[in-house]
Amino acid sequence: MENHLWQHILQVRTSSPLVHNITNYVVMNNTANALLAIGASPIMAHAKPEVEDMVSISHSLVINIGTLDEYWHESMMIAAKKANSLQKPWVLDPVGAGATPYRDVVLSEILSLNPTVIRGNASEIIALAKLNNTVTKGVDSTAMSNEAIDAATTLVKNHNSVVCISGETDIVIDKHQCLFLDNGDPLMTKVTGLGCTATALVGAFIGVIENKSEAAAAALSLLSISGELAAKNSSGPGSLQLNIIDKLYNITDKEFNSHLKLTK
Amino acid sequence: MENHLWQHILQVRTSSPLVHNITNYVVMNNTANALLAIGASPIMAHAKPEVEDMVSISHSLVINIGTLDEYWHESMMIAAKKANSLQKPWVLDPVGAGATPYRDVVLSEILSLNPTVIRGNASEIIALAKLNNTVTKGVDSTAMSNEAIDAATTLVKNHNSVVCISGETDIVIDKHQCLFLDNGDPLMTKVTGLGCTATALVGAFIGVIENKSEAAAAALSLLSISGELAAKNSSGPGSLQLNIIDKLYNITDKEFNSHLKLTK
Amino acid sequence: MENHLWQHILQVRTSSPLVHNITNYVVMNNTANALLAIGASPIMAHAKPEVEDMVSISHSLVINIGTLDEYWHESMMIAAKKANSLQKPWVLDPVGAGATPYRDVVLSEILSLNPTVIRGNASEIIALAKLNNTVTKGVDSTAMSNEAIDAATTLVKNHNSVVCISGETDIVIDKHQCLFLDNGDPLMTKVTGLGCTATALVGAFIGVIENKSEAAAAALSLLSISGELAAKNSSGPGSLQLNIIDKLYNITDKEFNSHLKLTK
What we know:
3 copies of one chain form a homotrimer.
Chain A: H1 2-15, E1 18-22, H2 28-37, E2 41-44, H3 51-57, E3 60-64, H4 70-85, E4 90-93, H5 101-111, E5 117-121, H6 122-130, H7 144-159, E6 162-166, E7 170-173, E8 178-181, H8 194-208, H9 212-231, H10 237-250, H11 253-259, E9 262-263
Parallel strand pairs in A: 1-2, 1-3, 3-4, 4-5, 5-6
Antiparallel strand pairs in A: 6-7, 7-8, 8-9
Helix pairs in contact in A: 1-9, 2-8, 2-10, 3-4, 6-7, 8-9, 9-10
Keywords (chains A, B, C): ATP-binding, Kinase, Magnesium, Metal-binding, Nucleotide-binding, Thiamine biosynthesis, Transferase
Function (chains A, B, C): Catalyzes the phosphorylation of the hydroxyl group of 4-methyl-5-beta-hydroxyethylthiazole (THZ).
Protein name (chains A, B, C): Hydroxyethylthiazole kinase
């Protein structure tokens, strides 16, 4: 699969997917810039009278509940239903799952629409799986990552989704396998919204790549390798934020493949 | 006219116009920074109970429909009507014109208020002119730019607006003439919202300069020359985004005039 | 007190307070990054069904009315009341106070809830105090800064708040004393939202430091010294914006203490 990932990156660059984002205020600028940097075309639109039309002209949909409210909740539902009716792929970023009852009510509704991909950190994936009340605990699930893998496996089974858990190691789980990606840099946790950026990049890749697990793995490894390389020239999180955009734009085949740490 | 443009830039720096922006979430931060960098004072405000008051204290108004919804649509109408009643100049950025029926309905209403200036890319200007159903095709309008010029000419005639078409060559059209600006750098297309920034800068210039075509030409050339110079020191779109802000702030008479490529 | 300030900075780094922000669209990204850079954890959330829950899990609340509208006004009131009922500290940034009657109506309501800290520029603090109709003019209040100090003193008395006036000299006023902070760089006025960032940092510090005046002084001096140092390596406001984030992240004891200009 390693050899496929770079091909997927090239495919996004050449096919320039149109990605419709209903996302949060904090990350809109960075997300749009990250999508442009990898060769995709971002649309940010949330108006209820137009989200169905935007989904119709896009390759994929990104739903991120970071700064949601009642209006945005409705927009997200309309858009996700439209994506399903058109069989277009979409990705859910359950920002802050478990933080408030409101988030969980909204997420429960969105989750019932069976996202193509779900990407969150371990605690969000765990909170999301609990909305189903059916998490099957593995034998050795004491550690957070094991608990998250159990939660992800539950979500894969119940919603037919590919599930990505972001962390020191990124994990991509589908029905058949579990991929571990060991790239990135600790400084990335000090830049706001890189998780949201990861989700948006996943949105671009699933828009044009058939194998959704490979698409997600390509997106996540592209971001974490870019972050790893960018961190070397960054004196803090401010410069890292822009150096990542530069590296997403100019990363080479050799840089990507020589740094990729992928295991199954 | 070339000699006038730098004078206009100096005038904005010294008179520091207050620019009221009702714009999209993606670009608010960059737009505000770009306005500060050229010496203007940005206000971002969209609340219906206050937009008329904000228009009243401002030199000009910027309306950008990028992430509009029903509430923002109403705010834009209230603000534009107030600007007209006070004879204050305002500029429309028809982001995504033609992308959805909703956008076109909203744009049709805003357009009926006859913006002082309209700035968009070729496809947006073409879509906007079609809302009138009266585009007069020129003899040789097969190419996109010719079609856009025809569309712009229609908008100039019907709405008494100055129309700016952004692209590899920026074009400013009014009743009397057509100006061509050949500055910029291809990397600028990889930074989100530079078109929106162009519109905001036009907003600042029309706030204090009587000749609206010259004001628009000064704003567009200031941004594209700054981008052209900034691109030389940028390793990607992330660094370009901030280098443009720096250059807007510290560009000199000599830098501006030696790079300006203006033809009529 | 000088010796306390760096200890407060370290305390924020180690205790990583959760800071709930109901703030404006323009600065959300920068504010979140600044909070992360100093070691705090930002939450941005404004939905009426969840703001009480967010306040409950946070150490402190930041209310910034920059791009308010009716919905956000209600959210702010709900959140501030909840903070009061839980005796959690909160800070008000009265952006644009006095600019429109609407802002003053909203601010009057928020002010009645007695913010723990208020931070604004001189004209905002003066406008805010006038909402009370009870500003006691000092003998020599002809200058703006004296007028602002009178206004701040009124607010301290009427609302039991600590009041911060940002400007060339930052001033922190409580019942007992008046602190003057003389750090910063003029280029900081060309970066949008640094005042809002100051408020957010105050939010982080009051979340974990008992003495609210010292907390505010530590936050303001941390930002202005970081800006002062960052400006030395910045060729304009674009690079300053990110260099400040870097410096907030990596400023040392020695850098801070050798530059601090604090007088009583």
